[in-house]
Amino acid sequence: MLDFKEHADSFARKFVPSYRFIRTQESTIDRSHVLQTELNSTSIKVLSWNIAKKNHDKIWIKDFLAILEQYKPELIFLQEVRLRMDAEHAAELREMSWNFAPNFIDAHHQTYSGILTAAKISPLTSRAILTKHHEPIVKTPKVSLITEYPLSNKRETLLVINSHFINFVDLNKFKTQLHELEFALSTHHGPVIFSGDFNTWSRKRAALLEQAVTRLGLAPVVFAPHESKKIKRFLLSPPLDYIFYRGLSENKASAKVLDYVSSSDHKPLLAEFSYIDTQ
C-alpha cells in the first residue's frame, strides 16, 4: 500500500509533469547600467522582497514602481523572480544594473525562475551558489546570489548575499545550504548584508539560522513590534524573511514592512544603513 508521501508525489505529478522544470546551465544573467561608480557609504537603502513570481503582473508592477519612487532603494533583493527567455528582461529596472541567478527553467511559461539583485552600480564580482539538494516533486535546487560592491570610502567593499532557502526537505539539507553560505560570508572581512527568504517556518530552522549569523557576527534589522508582526509567517512560526548585516550602522527609524502591498504573499522589507570608516 502506498504511504502518504508516495500518494502526494503521485498526485503532484499529474499537475507538475517531470518535463516542465528543467535545470538551467546559466549561472547568472547580468545587465550593466552604470549610473554611479560606488555606493554612498552614508546612506545605503535596501529593499528585500519575495515577489512570488508576480513580476509580470500589472498590479505588482504598479506596486514595485511606487516603492522605487517613494523609497529610492540603492540595493534591491528579489526572490522568486521570473525572467522571460524571449523578451527584454526586467524593464522596471532599466535604470539599475542587475544580476539574476536562475535555479530552473519553467518550460511551460518559457521563463527562468530565480533571484535578482539590483543596484545603482555594477558589482565588482558576482556568483551564484546552487544547493546540493533538490526540493521534492519538482526536483529543483534553490539558489543564492553573492555580489560585491565598492563603497565611497575606497577602503573596503560591501559583500551582499541574496538568498532563498530550500524548503520541504529535512533539517540536515537546510543546514547544508546554511553552512555553504556561512563559509562564503566568513571569507569576507568588510561589511556584509545577508538578506532573503530563509524559509524558517520551524523553531529548529530558526535556531540554526540564529546560531550561524551569531557566529558570523551578523545582526538582524530590528523592526518595531507593530512592523515585525507583518512579516510573512506560517501560523505561529518565526518570520521567513530577514535582513542581516555586519560592519554597518542601521538607521532604525527606516526599518519598515510594507503591509499595504498585496501583490505578493510576502511583504516588502525596507532598511537603511551607513558605513563609517574607522581606520
List keywords for this structure.
alpha+beta, six-stranded mixed beta sheet, 279 residues, 15 strands, nine-stranded mixed beta sheet
- Looking at the structure, what is the overall shape? globular
Topology as a string of helices (H) and strands (E)? HEEEHEEEEEEHEHEHEEEE
Strand composition percent: 25-35%
Largest sheet: 9 strands, mixed
Mean pLDDT figure: 87
Helix fraction bin: 10-25%
Instruction: Provide the low-confidence segments as ranges.
Output: 1-17
Main structural class: alpha+beta
Task: State the distance separating the first and last CA atoms.
Answer: 68 Å
Count every beta strand, where a strand is a DSSP E run of 2 or more residues: 15
* Total of DSSP H or I helical runs spanning 4+ residues: 5
Using the CA coordinates, give the radius of gyration. 18 Å
Brief characterization of the structure:
The relative contact order is 0.16. The protein has helices at residues 4-15, 58-71, 171-186, 203-215, 225-228, and strands at residues 21-22, 29-31, 44-50, 75-84, 97-106, 111-119, 125-130, 143-150, 157-164, 192-197, 219-220, 241-246, 249-250, 256-257, 269-274. It starts with a helix and ends in a 5-residue tail after the last strand.
